[in-house]
Amino acid sequence: MIAGAWLGLLCVGATRVPVGPMNTTMALRPSLTGGTRINVSPLGSLELRSHTAPVSLDVNVDRLDPERSQALVDHPERISGLQDEVAHDVEHGALDLAVRSCAAVVFGATALGLVVYRRPRRALAAGGLALTLLTASGATAYATWNPESVLEPRFSGLLSSAPSLVGDARNIVTEFDVYQRELARLVTNVTKLYDVTSTLPAYQPDPTTVRVLHVSDIHLNPASWKIIASLVRQYQVDVIVDSGDTMDHGTAAENAFLDPVENLGAPYVWVRGNHDSPATQRYLEHLKNVHVLDDGRAVTVAGLRFAGMGDPQFTPDRSSPVGGDASEELAGARLASALRDERTRGTPVDVAIAHEPVAARETDGTVPLVLCGHLHQEGTEILTFGTRLRREGSTGGGGLRALEGGRPAPIEASLLYFDRDSRRLQAWDEIRLGGLGLTTAEVSRHLPKENQPGAAPPATGPASPSAPSSPTGP
User: Fold this and answer.
1) Whole-model pTM?
2) I need a labelling partner for 277 at 20 to 30 A (CA). Which of 19, 170, 354, 388 fits?
């Protein structure tokens, strides 16, 4: 019965729907996790965690109507009225899809029931049960419907397409009618990408955001510089932050590897990792466009105040020296002290940087955001006193040593979006390249919980250990 229902759904449970200037095909598909997938061939696809149910919604962008799409590109003022049109089109398409899907599962289950049971009554019972299951799945999807899923899409496809398709983070945070407006924005972005010139439009981020590219643990991988330069160009990055382990052994013979840093297209803020020697640090200090942070030194770049502490340990052989975590905690405590001093002087730091997460955690309560690396695994957490810790994966894919394994490790970096006025984190994109591939990527958009629509505004200043704030989710 279930097999017949799904077979009917796969065969005839789809409908063609015009959405704005786009001609699309909508279909329900069996799924363990639900959600919505929007396929924009050949650029890639967007995945939305729109609902949790045993069915997913697939939307394929088949083509654009030339006249309607060109009119939208030539007359951007029409975009303001697009949201009502798109919402109406989607609502109409969803209703048509529901009717078709019901008919498809009843037909499929009944037909298969006749073949198996050869008794009309049992076949009709199978069709009725299939309809009941689909209705229950639809009710579950409706009950778990999350319109704000359009705020945090996951893009898979061409890396060069991601910035234009996913869009700017600032608009996502400030829009009031989330679902309608973001859906219209997505349609607009797809239309621009399918312009008659067949070329990608230049990404135009909101000028009120500061865009920070966070990289870490390059480990002497020369491919990383091309990736970083590409991201700087595509996302119009204002500043690059490197949380260490740029080198592998920290020898003077490796120093020439650092020369491309001067020409990446954005200021480079760097802290020493445990694979970076004092000689590495001295070499970088003499390169133009580079800001080396150590001993809690602070610097203002692109309107943001950064302070950092180099790793107190130099372990290029990956040993565990005497001191271990204790020395990291001491370095983190020194950084936290410097951050408190900056706040006392009236120059509070917006972003702290350390290499080791152990050291980074010591800054809790003294700064809104601390960046680190070291573990070659990205992650985000809110510390006890309210500081957000953002850990980057390896932008070098674990370095050249990683090639010794069976499969190259993923190459990871993050785009952090800051409000230019409040200097607070508005959103971030996790960027993940598959091993040595430089053309395809997964880009996942994330919003801090305090920036979700309807959430209370963030505090005006970072928490302090003497007056802890309530932790919030990442």
Assistant:
1) 0.83
2) 388
